[in-house]
Specification:
Bovine Mitochondrial F1-ATPase, ATP Synthase Beta Chain, Chain D, domain3, 16 helices, alpha/beta, 3 domains, about 350 residues, Rossmann fold, single chain, seven-stranded mixed beta sheet, 11 strands, 434 Repressor (Amino-terminal Domain)
């Protein structure tokens, strides 16, 4: 089948308040979000949904649906991101979290890693006092206080460097982010990778907190409470990079198998917490243990946290992550305890 995806940047420009607009024509915001990130392939969506979106954007279906174009992945070497919700190069990435779940630590870590890969990092400081942003600013090349300062910096640096830009959700609500993206496209700069965070924690209660996205990272309260960082939900986070034609088949198959295991593991955890592990059938005990190992393996020490944890940061190539996860899924690691896989880099058998 021809590779198809939504023109997400067009939707962002034409329909900034997509949640309200989608509801007004009878579309579920969650469906629209899943179409934008590729969780629902365009080829499997209902025609009436696509027609309604085209109507909202005041465009034709040919303009709304992009054919034969792939979205490039930025390999972060952060295991859970690369496997489950890859970073879309030049896309808009939304981080959805409440306070204390680690979204700013993850953003700081990403800026640290991207700078090592010769990206120019830019942060738009929101109005108000946010000392929690200090860790992010340490890994930021340019700190802006207005959207015009951001535009002027990207207009110069974007001609010779890849750009990683971060802003607060309030700049989305005001429409400034969409205006900025349109202005940059007007001068031929389309490779800005934009990270959107929510310092208020209100985004978790919204259906489409940032509008159309290429990548969505949904943080998980349970993982955060149990100190399983990065606390990005591997089931509900997604990316347009995951559309089948964009991925190596081994990656896609492993990602799907891992999600299936983790879904069942989460169901079993609630039973084990109430009744104990001994009340599970034998086959389910194996599933539970493998899910526990996989969850432990997906934790990772960050470079920006070394001073606080005393543990050296780790980078794991995507190919190594896929191989390690397959070992866990296939039972190769059944003889070891989950805590032996916690906060490691690549798994290396003794």
């Amino acid at each position: 089948m021809e590779d198809l995806r939504l023109n997400v940047s067009l939707l962002r420009r034409r329909v900034p308040n997509l949640t309200t607009a989608a509801k007004s024509v009878g579309l579920r915001p969650a469906t629209v979000s899943n179409l934008c990130t590729g969780k629902i392939p365009v080829g499997r969506s209902e025609v009436r949904t696509l027609v309604a979106l085209a109507s909202l954007a005041e465009c034709s279906l040919d303009e709304l649906i992009i054919r034969g174009e792939k979205i490039e992945m930025i390999e972060t070497k952060i295991k859970t991101l690369d496997l489950f919700a890859p970073l879309a190069k030049g896309g808009t990435i939304g981080l959805v979290a409440r306070h204390g779940m680690g979204q700013l630590v993850l953003l700081s870590e990403l800026f640290f890693r991207l700078k090592k890969d010769d990206f120019t990092t830019i942060l738009l400081i929101p109005n108000g006092n946010y000392p929690e942003l200090n860790d992010v600013t340490e890994n930021t090349d340019f700190i802006a206080h207005t959207i015009n300062e951001v535009y002027e910096e990207i207009a110069v640096k974007g001609k010779t460097s890849e750009i990683a830009f971060a802003a607060d959700r309030r700049n989305v609500v005001t429409g400034e982010i969409y205006d900025l993206q349109e202005r940059l496209q007007g001068i031929g700069i389309t490779t800005v990778t934009t990270f959107l965070v929510d310092l208020t924690g209100e985004a978790v209660d919204e259906d489409l907190p940032y509008g159309p996205l290429e990548t969505l990272w949904q943080f998980d309260a349970d993982l955060s409470a149990r100190h399983k960082f990065p606390a990005v939900n591997p089931i509900h986070s997604t990316s347009s990079v995951l559309e089948g034609a964009h991925l190596d088949q081994n990656h896609l198959t492993t990602q799907q198998r891992a999600q299936k295991l983790l879904r069942r593991y989460r169901e079993l955890r609630s039973l084990v917490n109430v009744r104990g592990l001994e009340h599970l059938p034998g086959a389910e005990i194996q599933t539970f243990k493998r899910g526990e190992r996989l969850e432990a393996y997906l934790t990772q020490p960050f470079y920006v946290a070394e001073a606080f944890t005393g543990q050296k940061g780790e980078s794991v190539a995507l190919s190594d992550t896929i191989n390690d996860v397959r070992k866990i899924l296939d039972g190769v690691t059944d003889s070891i305890q989950a805590d032996q896989l916690s906060y490691i880099g690549q798994y290396i058998a003794d």
